[in-house]
Structure formats: C-alpha cells, structure tokens
Design a protein that fits this description.
four-stranded mixed sheet; 9% strand; Nonspecific Lipid-transfer Protein, Chain A; 4 strands
C-alpha cells in the first residue's frame, strides 16, 4: 500500500480502537461502530457497495452493513488494519493511493474531530500537496448541485472552482481543511469563508456539498 494511504489507514484503526464502538463521528447518524463497518464493507464486499450510488442496490447494502455492524468491534478494527483481501484491486499500490488516501484521511478526521478536545494535527507539505491534487480533480464533483458559486483557495493563492455560479463564496484554508469542507464537514473545517451573507447561509444549509 502507498505510504499515505497506509498511514491514514493505521491511524483510523488506532482512533477507532481508542474511541470504542459507541463514540460519535462527524458522519451523521453513525457511531464509530458504523464507520468501522462501512470501511470493511467498502473493501471486502464489492457486491454490496454499489448501493451507495444505485438506488436498487441500497437494500442489499443495508443488509450487509447490518451484518458487519453486528460483528465484534475488535474484529472490524483488525480487518481495517490488515487491509483488503488478497485479490482485491485495493491491493494494487496505484489504486490504493487514488482510492484510499482521501477516504482514510477524511474518516480519521471524522473520528478525531467528533471528540470535544480535538486539535488540528500537523501534516507534512508533501501530504498537503497530495490532498490538494486530489481536491483539484474532484472539486467539481463534490460541489455539484450547491446553490452558490464556490471557490476553494489555499493560503498561497492557488484556487480551484468547485461550482460556477453567482454569488460566489470563497473558502480559504490548507488543502487538508478545504478537502474536509468540500466533503461536507463544514462545521469542523478550519477555514475562512468570505462572500455574500445570504450566499454563505445558503451554502452552510446545503446538503449537496460532499459525497
């Protein structure tokens, strides 16, 4: 597995273990047990994960999620740590890098930032660049359907347009924080938001931001 994806995977497993099965997360309606089950199903049950996108498959996904949520919590954490099964495409380094780096980073922060005493962690510049690269590629997808224009801006001035439209809201922060904002973790992201007050209000109330 790639360096960043593996690091974030192991961090998430440690965070889940420390928090216990009934701790809150930033994923609405999910406790840590639910999040752990989601991560395992995502890698080990490709027959079910299509339910996230295809309505007709949603009942199957729900059934499989219930099965995995009922498993011993320690078993779920160990499955996360050990990674996907041998013949999974996630075993390929390139796929692991593309598919898992952001996934595990966001969910690790979902656990960390749901705790009352959390504080931002220092991320090395190379990882920040990696997250920025991912954000550049996915910003339009993450921002589809929102009711305002949205520009994401780094402190160095680099920008990416998540949604074209007016009025425009500009969100400034480190790539890691912008990524969390774009994935719908607006309340927990350490960013500065500028723009028309009504537009900012509409954006904050929107359920469209993120996947």
């Amino acid at each position: 597995m790639s360096t960043f994806a593996k690091r974030e995977r192991l961090l998430l497993a440690d965070l889940l273990e420390t928090a216990g099965p009934d701790a809150p997360t930033l994923c609405e309606g999910w406790l840590t047990r639910d999040l752990a089950a989601h991560m395992v199903v995502r890698e080990r049950r490709p027959d079910a994960v299509g339910g996230q996108l295809i309505k007709q498959l949603a009942p199957r996904l729900q059934k499989v999620m219930e099965e995995y949520t009922a498993k011993p919590y320690e078993e779920l954490i160990q499955l996360i740590r050990t990674g996907p099964p041998r013949f999974s495409p996630f075993q390929l380094k390139q796929i692991d890098e593309v598919a898992n780096t952001v996934e595990f980073y966001v969910h690790a922060e979902d656990v960390r930032r749901a705790q009352p005493d959390w504080s931002p962690r220092e991320l090395d510049p190379v990882f920040q660049e990696t997250l920025w690269s991912r954000l550049e590629r996915t910003a339009r997808l993450l921002g589809r359907g929102i009711p305002t224009g949205l520009v994401l801006r780094r402190p160095n001035g680099e920008t990416v347009v998540a949604h074209r439209g007016t009025p425009v809201v500009t969100v400034t922060g480190e790539p890691s924080e912008l990524l969390l904002f774009a994935f719908g973790r607006q309340s927990a992201a350490r960013v500065e938001v500028e723009g028309d007050k009504d537009a900012i209000s509409k954006l904050s109330e929107s359920k469209q931001l993120g996947l």
